[in-house]
Amino acid sequence: MKRYALALAALIAAGPASAQDDFNLEDAVAVCSGCHGEDGLPVDEEYPILWGQQFFYIYTQLKDYAAGRRENEIMSPIASEFSRDQMKAVAQYFADKPWPAIDAHAEEGDSQIAERGITGGQCSACHGKWQGDSRIPRLAGQQPGYLRKAMLDFKNDVRKNAPDKSSTMKQLSEETIDALARYLAAF
Amino acid sequence: MKLKFLKALLALPLVLVAGSAWAQEEVGGGTLYGDLSYVTQDMLSRAAGDGNNFLHTNGNYQQTRYYPSRQINTDNVGKLRPAWIFQTEIVDTMETTPIVVNGVMYVTTAFNHVYALDARTGAQIWHHKHDMGPITTYCCGPNNRGVAVTGDKVFMGTLDAKLVALDAKTGKQVWETEIADPELGYSETMAPTVVNDMVLIGTNGGEYGIRGFVKAFDTETGELKWTFHTTAEDSTGVWATHDATGRDMLRDIEAEKAALAEQGDPYETLGGGVWQNPAVDLETNRVYFVVGNPSPDLDGALRPGDNLYTDSLVAVDLNTGEYVCHFQYIAHDVWDLDAVSPPIITTVKDADGNDVKGVLHGGKTGHVYVHKADDCSLIRFSEAMVPQENMWTLPTADGARMLPGANGGVEWSPMAIDPTQRLSYAINLHQPMTYTVSSTPYPEGKLWLGGSFDVIPDEEQWGNVTAVDYDTGKIRWKVRTAEPMIGGVLATAGGLVFTGEGNGLFKAYDSTSGAELWRFQAGAGVNAPPSSYTVDGTQYIVVAAGGNAQLNYKRGNNIIAFALAD
Questions:
Q1: Which residue of A has its CA nearest to B397?
Q2: How far is CA A50 from CA A26, A138, B236, in A?
């Protein structure tokens, strides 16, 4: 009986059956780097930079992908393979890397439009100086294509794992979102 | 010549070292009540009359922010000049009130750095960086509003929801205790209050579906002494249909009752943050504090009932934390026009014109509310200090315009009073907004507004400084400012009112007339409450200029102390 209980406890401790039993951090991050970049620079402009991103933000997003709170045909199946501890290890790996510099430029007039949007949406109340903190992601120097897509996904109810962002983004025009994306990428 | 120069050069480091030692000794020599940094309960209790120190975030237990020295006054304030400027490591939003103990000043910055400074020179004595955990969840900016002091310790609440006690002499941590779980949305930005060997502190988190509280911890050990939950287990209340000023809040009571029967009482995720210090009444052994908005801010469908004790003034027993009385300003608030600015205890006229012990609160609605202290009941409310339009229009899916916007009126900014003139001084925002509702379930620690409040970009924004006669509720004077106001007010016996603005201006007004008597451009938003102190016979006014994250005012990192030019 005692033995059975111990075995059960071990099983529970091992986490859900879907977690990778043969998890190897190096292999896991190699998969991530296929899209997010060997050197931290993503292969597609709509993919986010993970190097130097906030640990708790990455971890939360992986949890949300796994639970279906955030949906993406590539990320959802990958994240659902990880246990929570494995997610934490992956998040820590990327959080510890240096943020890579990208070549991003704002256009003339962007800063005025962006500042108006920031004041209107009270963005800095949470995002501060755009460097990120814990569950708040870094936006400064992020890929402009990804920033634009993320804001539009919130606006159009495609991304639903931060529901209040949808309400805020609906108040911003696409022109403002475009300007904000360039402004933040070049910040 | 050469030899003389060399000698001078050699002497230089010695002079510098000696200078610093001399400064330390002088601070010790300036001590009035004991050794260098020791703070007694008697000092804390008598702070209202202490013209040397600034021992509480809001000046004294009554939270009057009325400083009793008059060396700097209406006649000479025009000669006020910077005495020193100290720059902190963190260049970000600053809401700290400098605390001064016998010539030593304690200030905090964003992300929980604490500095001890020589209050005469601005020289740094020590610098403590909180070892922040990986999980923080906070609104609205990585702020900290300062420390509390007693004995040989300095206390601070942190963004990762801890309470830390530091050695006042060295800045070294003595103990640390977790106040609540940051992953669920709890965080600390308020300064604690210390009384009778207890540290009192509330919590942020009304935007994250927390269950709010005020807790008391032992100053020596960090052990929890009592907890008062700001959301009652039966939070339904009396199904109030009108607010404190008698306006219909357009509640659908029948729908709420049906929702209550179906969903049960929402108290576990009902919010009710306490953002600012309680006022302490040592005569009756009570503390008075105001409780913030219900969660989610804009979506009332998920929280039927009055949502007690959100948007309320509450009194509890100082020794036990047991409920004494409350008054709710807005039942079932769906606009986040909650109660944040710290309450003030002072003598007020009741409805019959008799002097009674009263409690004042400056609301986000733009009213100053005047209560009887003994039962929390409302005696009167002031004329509106800002425009009010379409109150109470319910939030809609497309956004409904209503004034004031969700930042107020009076935000967290502490008011000051001048009890000799029976005037309160408040700073206000005029920031037109739309209120949008969008119902989503409890997101387990993520932002949970239930919609959004959005500034209307084409409408003009501004602020004001307003003096209200709290015996009548009439506005005595009002001065408009270029930008919405957030920070705080200090009044002094010198007939002055000090407050700062987002554009970097720090101003002194005549407390009787509102005439501007002095201004200084600080180079970054002055969005923190000023304080005052006297060392070696010189009175100083001190304020932080670090801007503000919530309103996106220009950030900086300066602590600026002013004194009269010779």
A1: A167
A2: 15, 10, 46
